[in-house]
């Protein structure tokens, strides 16, 4: 019998099949079959490797010439350069992932137009035609760059060959899920196609020193689509978050081999593309109304201090099971804070529907938002509000205690810059100041600082 041209191996039990199936017939697991190259007849690949290969000639780290480091390429957006660790590194591979319609293609076309002033750039699109990209380029003012080349291709082989030609210093691929290798028969976007196409592209980039930016899709849960190995292969992983229909959009570094992962760039979309928000705190608080349930939180977006409004709405429930809804805040964390409020204070929330909203489409991951969330819920439930000119931050423990947070000085400086008069914060972790009203636990915070 002729040797099969392809084989699919179950990643759970190792069973082999000649065609892909959704469910492994041996172990019963779903979506575990991955295409692999059939082994040659005779010795296994491991056995053959014992007699192959050559001895490598290592060099000491001290003997490496530091002058061989290539200078980074600026994206034209200072905040994005900071997120990348100083700019795009030649030979580096960056993965940019985000929800559909977030502005990934717009941002990359803006970057391409800027870099094309001094370097050769190739924009390879597998999702859009040349006419579609040209229309966007005309809107962004990027169509007149002579050093900006464009190809519409879904062949990973052709794009890798173009990179190896050495004609382009920066290559942008939109997107990795549309590429496919001719030798693999599975459809684009499958695990085998994404893994092997990425390896071919990355190997070509490392050989020529070209900087490559890959666009990645995300799942319904917000994680990067495809195999996890894709994130391990690349040097930098950028996450594009925010409200795709309006509000602010945030670019964060989830992984960065060449810089910090604590930075973030905040953008807003207009007719001319994405623009950096110079003073996001003022923009987020511009339409705020001083009412019960409204609390200003001093938080951090990366290392950048930011003031955002937390809104809470508390209503009697119409059903037997109260509803808890959070926009921009983790729902599990919200349920935990509600339990702390009920157990450690006199608030009764078991028969109340509670809604939390972070204004501006921001998504909070800062533990220092706990105190602001609790104060907003208590304010809405009691019909009382905080004194005007007050910002709030602090982590809340299960015992109701308010714990210290990082970068207190940055939060206070941002609050003072926008004219706030006091801050409710934990007593530890900062220098003593009359601006900070120290709170030790949730009960004292509600009693002392909520007024009619």
TrEMBL record:
Gene3D superfamilies linked to this entry: 3.30.230.10, P-loop containing nucleotide triphosphate hydrolases (3.40.50.300)
PANTHER family noted in UniProt: DNA REPAIR PROTEIN RADA, DNA REPAIR PROTEIN RADA-LIKE PROTEIN
Entry note about domains: The middle region has homology to RecA with ATPase motifs including the RadA KNRFG motif, while the C-terminus is homologous to Lon protease.
Protein name stated in the entry: DNA repair protein RadA
Sequence motif RadA KNRFG motif, residues: 255-259
Gene from which the chain derives: radA
Lon-protease-like as annotated region, ranges: 353-452
Keyword Zinc found: yes
């Amino acid at each position: 019998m002729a040797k099969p041209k392809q084989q699919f191996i179950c990643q759970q039990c190792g069973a082999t099949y000649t065609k892909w199936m959704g469910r492994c017939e041996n172990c019963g697991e779903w979506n575990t079959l991955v295409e692999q190259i059939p082994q040659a007849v005779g010795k296994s690949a491991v056995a053959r490797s014992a007699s192959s290969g050559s001895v490598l000639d290592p060099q000491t780290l001290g003997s490496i010439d530091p002058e061989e480091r290539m200078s980074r390429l600026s994206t034209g957006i200072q905040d994005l350069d900071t997120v990348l660790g100083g700019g795009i590194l030649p030979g580096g591979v960056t993965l940019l992932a985000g929800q559909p319609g977030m502005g990934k293609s717009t941002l990359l076309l803006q970057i391409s137009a800027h870099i094309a002033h001094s370097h050769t750039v190739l924009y390879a699109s597998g999702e859009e035609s040349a006419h579609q990209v040209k229309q966007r380029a005309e809107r962004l003012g990027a169509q007149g760059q002579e050093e900006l080349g464009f190809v519409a291709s879904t062949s990973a082989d052709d794009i890798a060959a173009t990179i190896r030609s050495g004609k382009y210093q920066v290559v942008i691929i939109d997107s990795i899920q549309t590429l496919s290798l001719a030798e693999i028969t599975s459809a684009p976007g499958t695990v085998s196609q994404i893994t092997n196409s990425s390896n071919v592209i990355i190997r070509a980039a490392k050989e020529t020193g070209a900087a490559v930016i890959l666009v990645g899709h995300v799942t319904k849960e917000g994680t990067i689509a495809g195999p996890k190995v894709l994130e391990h292969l690349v040097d930098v992983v950028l996450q594009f978050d925010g409200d795709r229909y309006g509000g602010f959009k945030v670019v964060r570094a989830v992984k960065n081999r060449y810089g910090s992962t604590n930075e973030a760039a905040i953008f807003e979309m207009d007719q001319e593309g994405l623009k950096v928000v110079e003073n996001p705190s003022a923009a987020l608080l511009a339409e705020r109304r001083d009412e019960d349930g409204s609390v200003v939180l001093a938080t951090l977006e990366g290392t950048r201090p930011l003031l955002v409004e937390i809104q809470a709405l508390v209503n009697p429930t119409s059903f037997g099971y109260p509803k808890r809804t959070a926009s921009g805040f983790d729902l599990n964390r919200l349920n935990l804070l509600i339990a702390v409020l009920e157990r450690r204070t006199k608030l009764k929330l078991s028969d109340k529907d509670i809604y939390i909203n972070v204004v501006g489409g921001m998504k909070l991951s800062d533990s220092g938002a706990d105190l602001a969330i609790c104060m907003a819920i208590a304010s809405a439930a009691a019909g009382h509000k905080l004194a005007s000119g007050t910002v709030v931050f602090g982590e809340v423990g299960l015992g109701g205690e308010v714990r210290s947070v990082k970068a207190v000085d940055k939060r206070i400086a941002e609050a003072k810059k926008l004219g706030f008069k006091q801050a409710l914060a934990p007593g530890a972790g900062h220098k003593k100041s009359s601006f900070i009203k120290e709170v030790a636990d949730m009960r004292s915070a509600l009693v002392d600082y909520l007024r009619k």
